[in-house]
Amino acid sequence: MTRADVVAGILWVGATFYALFGGADFGGGFWDLVAGGAEKGERPRALIQRSLTPVWEANHVWLIFILVVLWTAFPPAFSAIMTTLYVPLALAAIGIVLRGSGFAFRKSVEGLEARRAAGATFALSSVLTPFFMGTVVGAIAAGNVPAEGNGDAFSSWLQPLPLLTGAMFVATGAYLAAVFLVGDAHRGDREMEPYFERRALGAAVVAGAFATAGLIALHAEARYVFDRLTSQGLPLVVLSLVCGAVLLAVLLRGSRRPLRPLAAGAVIAVIWGWGVAQFPYLLPTSLRIDQAAAPDSTMTIIFIVFAAAAILVLPSLALLYTLSQRDLLESEH
Questions:
Q1: Which candidate among 37, 99, 143, 300 keeps its CA 20 to 30 Å from the CA of 252?
Q2: DSSP strand E in the chain: where?
């Protein structure tokens, strides 16, 4: 295993954390969008607001981490992706900005119409942003990003596999958020537990349907990735299925304690299954990890920075999430 392979693994660690925390963050916005009118949706929106407020800004730390590692350690891959998929990436970036401003302003602006507009901006952006991010991932997996960059700005991601991957990103985020919100409701508004239980079950079914359709598209559009996913990556696929099945059984039995680890395990297994399926390529099948890697001196610096971040940032984020889960960040007034 080379230094470049280790840094690619670090990049996947960042993607894993962003998929978990950022995905649940976006999923909360999805449930905000479909909660119903002002009266019907008041309680679920209040729980979503309470759950997201302490951590929503911190979740995007992982996106910044991914971008920095990618352009520093693998500049040819970064250039190829940015010059080919700039349309969905730009739309996702706009969505992140609009989502953040909508979330921040909807409780502070004056006037009912202004608050509704801010809330709608937050909710819609929470759906569109992960969708466009998913199309980027799907386009890369499909091999639609040439190693030299400057691929077609639209046909590269307006194809079945990228679009299905975008839909799966939205459904997976909704699934994670519903599972996490069941736990939050258990500590806060217990009457909302069955509300989010039903939504977690529904989102799991929808995400599974998109994943199945995505596998069919993967077989048609990305045979290299499909073959490795169903061979070297098969144990991770099975692990994801087992975690998902056990979680559904636990939900139906009304248990609470293992929900979040099971949901996280299902998502983590999918992400690392994809990583195994793509290996040794960053851009299947045109650009390998070793071909895109920066010089060894740059990789050494990345190791040092990653170690420093692991020592300083990870404990800080862990403390933030712990305090948030224990309701120790809320004002007494």
A1: 37
A2: 281-283, 287-288
Angle at 295 between CA 290 and CA 296, to 5 degrees: 90
For residue 32, give the nearest of 116, 112, 114 by alpha carbon: 116
13's CB contacts (< 8 A; 6+ apart) are: none
Both tokens of 97, joined, read: 């900005």
Phi, psi of 268 (to 5 degrees): -60, -40
Local confidence band at 331 (pLDDT 50, 70, 90 cut-offs): very low
pTM attached to this predicted model: 0.92
Q: How confident is the model at residue 332 (pLDDT cuts 50, 70, 90)?
A: very low
What is the rounded distance in angstroms from the CA atom of residue 178 to the CA atom of residue 175?
5
Amino acid at 158: L
In which band, very low, low, confident or very high, does the pLDDT at 256 lie, cut at 50, 70 and 90?
Answer: low
- Give the whole-angstrom CA distance, residue 258 versus residue 262: 6
Place of tokens 């985020």: 173
DSSP 212: H
Q: Which residue has the tokens 């937050």?
A: 122
- Judge whether residue 85 has pLDDT over 60: yes
| DSSP per-residue string spanning 84-126 | HSHHHHHHHHHHHHHHHHHHHHTTTSSSHHHHHHHHHHHHHHH
Report the relative pairing of strands 287-288 and 281-283 from DSSP bridges: antiparallel
pLDDT above 60 (res 219): yes
**Residue 285 structure tokens:** 């099948």
